[in-house]
Amino acid sequence: MTQQVDLRARHRLAPEQLRWTCDPSVFAFQTTAELKADEVIVGQDRAVRALGLGLTMNQPGYHIYVTGPVGTGRATYTRKQVQAVAATMPAPPDWCYVYNFQQPDQPVALSLPPGTGGAFRKEMAELVDELKDAIRKLLASETFETRRTELLQSFETRINEIWRELESKAAQLGFAIQRTPSGIATTPVGPSGEPISQEQFAALPEAQREEIARRGRELNEEVGEALRKVRAVEREAREALPGALLALMRDVGIPNGLTALGYGERDVPALVEGTLKQPRLLSGSPRAVGATEIAGILHDSLRCW
C-alpha cells in the first residue's frame, strides 16, 4: 500500500502543468494584426516548393491543382504567388469565347489585345441588340416583302415555263404528265386525250406497243432534263434570297462585319495568332486549317458586303 502511494505521489502533476503556455518573447510581433498570412503557409514546405516549380514551367499543357483543408490559407497563398509571377510577365491577351454556329458544343476562342475583351463583349452585346431590332423591322417591312415576292415570282415563272415545255413535249409524244409528291408520272393517251388503261394497252398491236414504249423512253429523258432544270432554278432561288436580304441590310444601314466593331486589317495577325493557340478549336475542322486559311476567314468577316 505504501508503495502505491509513493507511485502516485511521484507522478502527480501540479495544476500549472495541466495546460500549455506560450512565451510571448519568442514572437517578433506584438499582435497577429502585424502578420501577413498570405505570405507563408505553415507545414507545407513540399507544397510550397511544388507550386514554385510549377509557376516556372512556361510550356503549354502544364497545370497546377491545389487542394487542402478549409481555412489553411491555400487559396490566398496560391493567388498571391500567381499574382507575383504574373506581375513580372507581359500582359496576356484577353480571351473571348463566342458561339460556334457549326459546332455549338465547341465555342470559338478569340485572342484580343490586353484590355479590349470587355469592350468587345459590350460592343457585341450592343450589336446583337441592334441586329435583333433591325432584322425584325427589316423582315416586317413592306420593302423587303415586295422584293421577296418579286424575286420568288420570277423564279416561279421560270419553273412554270419548264413544266409547260415538258407538257408540250409529252403531248407531242402522245403522253400526259402528272406531277405528284413522289415525282413525275407519265401516262400514254389516246387520240381523244383519254389515258390508255393497262387492258387497252395490252390489246394494241405489238408494233404500236413498241412505238409507245419508245416514245415513253424518249419522254423519260425529257422528264429527267426538266427535273435537273427545276432543281437548278430552285437552288438559284435559295441563293438569291439571302443576297436580296443582304442588299436590303446594306440599304438600311445594318453594321457591316467586324469593321463595325472597330477591327481592321491591322488586327488580323493578332487574331490569327490567338486562334492558332486553340488546338481544340482547329481539330474540329473537316480539313487542315493553317494561318493562311484563318486569315482568309477573318478578312472575309471584316465586311459583309
Largest sheet: 2 strands, antiparallel
Oligomerization status of the protein chains: single chain
Order of strands in the sheet with most strands: 1-2
Low-confidence stretches: none
Per DSSP, what share of the residues sits in E-state strands of 2 or more residues? 5-15%
Number of strand elements: 4
Instruction: List the total number of helices.
Output: 10
Which structural class fits the helix and strand makeup?
A: mainly alpha
Helix content: 40-55%
What number of domains?
3
The Cα radius of gyration reads: 41 Å
Q: What is the residue-averaged pLDDT?
A: 82
Order of helices and strands: HHHEEHHEEHHHHH
Shape descriptor: elongated
CA(first)-CA(last) distance: 110 Å
